[in-house]
Amino acid sequence: MVVADREHLHVLQEEDSSKRRQILDGARKVFMDLGFDGASMGEIARAAGVSKGTLYVYFADKSALFEAILEEEALQYGQVVFNFDPARDVETTLNDFGQAYIRLLCRPGGGSAIRTVMAIAERMPDVGCRYYLRVLDKTINRLSDYLKAHVGPGDLAIDDCDLAASQFMELSKASLFLPFVFQAAPPPSEQRMTEVVDSATRMFLAAYKAK
Amino acid sequence: MVVADREHLHVLQEEDSSKRRQILDGARKVFMDLGFDGASMGEIARAAGVSKGTLYVYFADKSALFEAILEEEALQYGQVVFNFDPARDVETTLNDFGQAYIRLLCRPGGGSAIRTVMAIAERMPDVGCRYYLRVLDKTINRLSDYLKAHVGPGDLAIDDCDLAASQFMELSKASLFLPFVFQAAPPPSEQRMTEVVDSATRMFLAAYKAK
Amino acid sequence: MVVADREHLHVLQEEDSSKRRQILDGARKVFMDLGFDGASMGEIARAAGVSKGTLYVYFADKSALFEAILEEEALQYGQVVFNFDPARDVETTLNDFGQAYIRLLCRPGGGSAIRTVMAIAERMPDVGCRYYLRVLDKTINRLSDYLKAHVGPGDLAIDDCDLAASQFMELSKASLFLPFVFQAAPPPSEQRMTEVVDSATRMFLAAYKAK
Amino acid sequence: MVVADREHLHVLQEEDSSKRRQILDGARKVFMDLGFDGASMGEIARAAGVSKGTLYVYFADKSALFEAILEEEALQYGQVVFNFDPARDVETTLNDFGQAYIRLLCRPGGGSAIRTVMAIAERMPDVGCRYYLRVLDKTINRLSDYLKAHVGPGDLAIDDCDLAASQFMELSKASLFLPFVFQAAPPPSEQRMTEVVDSATRMFLAAYKAK
DNA sequence: TATGAATGAGACTTCATTCAT
DNA sequence: AATGAATGAAGTCTCATTCAT
């Protein structure tokens, strides 16, 4: 056991050994296309251009590979620049954020991680939970912090900023995300996304703008 | 088996022959708990109290059984009385609907159908699509129709009622559904659900109440 | 031990180059603990503190490594000084031998070689055969030779000394070895081993002491 | 095949449903030839003339199949009529038993169970232990009981009957079993077995016959 | 010489599905 | 109709071995 750990450590230290990169890229595609159960290690190996055995050199098992991908997803999410500079005005900030957020969700393959994780959350609750906290909840918190900074006379009148942040994010998805993720509609057009986020921003400000 | 003949002539056709009922009930539980891939026909047979072979007497294969359950789910959803009587006033109607809606989603096992269907939407797009249309979109449309009936001076000022309906539904889930479905939080308390839907209603009216 | 001296010679062909020694020591432990099939080359490499590739520098394959260990085992066995000096009296010689023999078999890990070789004797008959001849049969023969030297009036009356030697060895194991090797009992106590070998010696002499 | 018709009975539960019998027979052969690790489920399926999947209908896993065979082995062992009728005289009883015992051990494939179980006793201690208790220890106890019944003036003078029983069994194997099990010699001849057991009996009585 | 990354065959096991009764 | 025995394809994972450095 200890040995295995060490062996993995050695490999893991080189975060971007090219084989590891290949595997993660191939696996992401397969996992997101087919879901955790639908993806087979053979398919992943083929997609990654390595042998099946090699997968297990880099990742202890299928779950570990899956979680490594979610880890990356979380990091990428964190690197998306949601500009929550408190100096910026609320309307612009919210609108920019909403636009970026919905485009992230509805990019081709964009809902896949959410969908895929959601799918196994019942059988692997800790995976679901961690993904939520690291990705979704974190974004809520950053927006919430921004809002808090603007609560005050002449700015925003919000009682529960966490709820408000969540509300704005939900509003930004309205009529777009569900049809997309259920494959009932193609990815929304640029124009439609703009409209929806504009509407969300208006609605949010109508409710929370201090008088 | 002469005596039995008379009975079994039509039983198979009948939607609710007792065996079929048993199977659907057992299968729903297993599918919702474990997901499409995680559920095995053996487990389903056990949960239904029938033999594995019998499953194939009533359903062509695993997918057909799964879709039959979604069919039922859609019917049940349709039977939930969302009281959209145009005669009722907007605030009460929206609030009542929001309360019922979030309780439906967050009931134990409530997110399961959504989660389960979402999970296979990429591999079985028509299943995902049909579920969306028959369940989610249908609800949106009914709410939208209600809203349309109230658009007018002194009532609601809404440009895009479909979007507005979707917005209200999304608002009703804010901060509640995602943590629940990702297993990052237990089902929300009654009080919290009430608060969130109250806030959603206020927000909606702040934005759309005609002046 | 003379090992320290040897290390100053850098003769790579030498049987006991330090790496080779490491490998043999690590491999013995793993093979004896887990059996031929249960032992993996990876585990052996770890136990030996070398890389997997290095194993194949010194040994052609897993079997060759295993046989090299049995070779050593045979040599060590041969070096255990069973004092069969013909000048010693029979009772003492037998008893001393029996005591040493049963302690050898029942030492922690003692039955392991026998067990391990036995296990693969059917698939690798020559390995089993050679081990028997070089280890077990050799001991029988040395005891047999000792007995032959004492056959005569006033000493021992034995017709078939090979059989007699084998009999004494079997008697020395009675009630001790099988429970131990089948893990049905912990290693026998010192006192019990003494009693059993004493009994074996008495029995042997009762049967073979010349009158 | 005419017989085949009769075999299509629903008798999975029965201990000797024909498929179960087939599997056990095929598996015994493969396990005994190749050892637990060396035997593959595919090979066993082929030897049994069933599909791999069928093996798992009857046995939970490879270990369970293996243990079922040991179970049978134990039963068969128990059914070997070792005639320990206390009314029989000691010499005949011992000799008959010894003859039967060594023939059991050295029959073709006879040492295989012992060898095979011994081989995995380290990794599966409970299997080893149970086999020892159910097969070997049980036989010792039955012989021991017989001996106890004959301890007395003019019959046997034995202090530790359990030890004595074990001693006789070990003596009966002397020079025969080890070469056989290590594949260093073919199964012993009838004549040789007779000689060895005769010698064992003489030796035993020389030591334990009451004076 | 020594390494360890990489491989691919093959192990055990599961499971949707079929078939005879 | 209902069963349950049987199947075989496919899944995850292990491991002896090779090869470039």
UniProtKB/TrEMBL annotation, chains A, B, C, D:
Gene3D superfamilies: Homeodomain-like, Tetracycline Repressor, domain 2. One of its GO terms (molecular function) is transcription cis-regulatory region binding. PROSITE patterns: HTH_TETR_1, HTH_TETR_2. InterPro entries: DNA-bd_HTH_TetR-type_CS (IPR023772), Homeodomain-like_sf (IPR009057), HTH-type_TetR-like_transc_reg (IPR050109), HTH_TetR (IPR001647), Tet_transcr_reg_TetR-rel_C_sf (IPR036271), TetR_C_Proteobacteria (IPR039536). It comes from the Bacteria. Transmembrane segments: none annotated. This is TetR/AcrR family transcriptional regulator. It comes from Bradyrhizobium rifense.
